[in-house]
Design a protein that fits this description.
By secondary structure, the protein is mainly α. The protein has helices spanning 3-6, 9-32, 35-44, 47-50, 54-67, 85-121, 126-148, 150-161, 182-216. α2 (9-32) crosses α7 and α3 (35-44) packs antiparallel against α9 (182-216).
Length: 217
């Protein structure tokens, strides 16, 4: 496969779009399928802060996760917790952010079907290899930023994503924040990276399979 084909505009567009689509897919999986939370909730020690059973904590957590879906309507009502106005606004802002993810996910899926079909017709599977390269570059970039100063990176990310400071939730006024321990985000990040890694390994496998098939003919 020539390097010219590897960097054709359509190939680059397909690869970039596919890389971002897989990342969003991984985010959706860990958000809407709370297996990580259910497996580790007892180790978080949340009970000591909120006085609830693990089952009640998981129910509150999944209620918030389900609220972030575009298929959930109405105001957020978290069982066992009273949320202040600013915290409700923050979760609503999060829902709007996820709505954007959903729009990209659906629109991206249809666009990718067309682009991948065109690549397939041209017998050009280099986009799969380039997808892996782009994904690695994205992960390395954010990894370096986080490694340099995670706290600053965390603050900057929230300032970029949200137009207010309601994400600074006071646990004394909103004890619901206790159900999102720091360990959870570490585990979710690792799971997201594992999912992305597995999918990209499949991309490489498919690329080598079809590339070898083309060379043999």
């Amino acid at each position: 496969m020539s390097y010219f084909n590897l960097f054709k505009r359509r190939t680059v567009l397909t690869s970039l779009l596919l890389s971002l689509w897989v990342i969003v897919l991984a985010i959706f999986i860990v958000t809407y399928i709370p297996f990580i939370y259910q497996m580790n909730v007892s180790s978080y020690g949340i009970n000591t802060h909120v006085g609830l059973t693990n089952q009640q904590i998981v129910k509150a957590y999944t209620t918030i996760c389900n609220y972030l879906s575009i298929f959930t309507f109405g105001d957020l009502k978290v069982p066992y917790f009273h949320l202040t106005k600013h915290t409700l606004i923050h979760f609503r802002d999060c829902k709007h952010l996820f709505a954007f993810f959903w729009f990209f996910f659906v629109a991206g899926a249809f666009t990718l079907l067309y682009l991948i079909y065109k690549q397939y017709k041209d017998r050009d599977f280099s986009f799969l290899k380039l997808t892996v390269v782009i994904t690695i570059l994205i992960i390395v970039f954010f990894g370096i930023v986080a490694a340099l100063d995670f706290d600053d990176a965390f603050v900057i990310m929230h300032k970029l994503l949200f137009r207010n400071n309601y994400w600074l939730i006071d646990c004394a006024k909103d004890p619901v924040i206790w159900i999102f321990p720091e360990q959870l985000f570490d585990q979710l990040l690792i799971t997201i990276l594992v999912i992305i890694g597995v999918v990209n390994a499949l991309f490489l496998g498919v690329y080598h399979f079809y590339n070898q098939k083309i060379l043999n003919h």
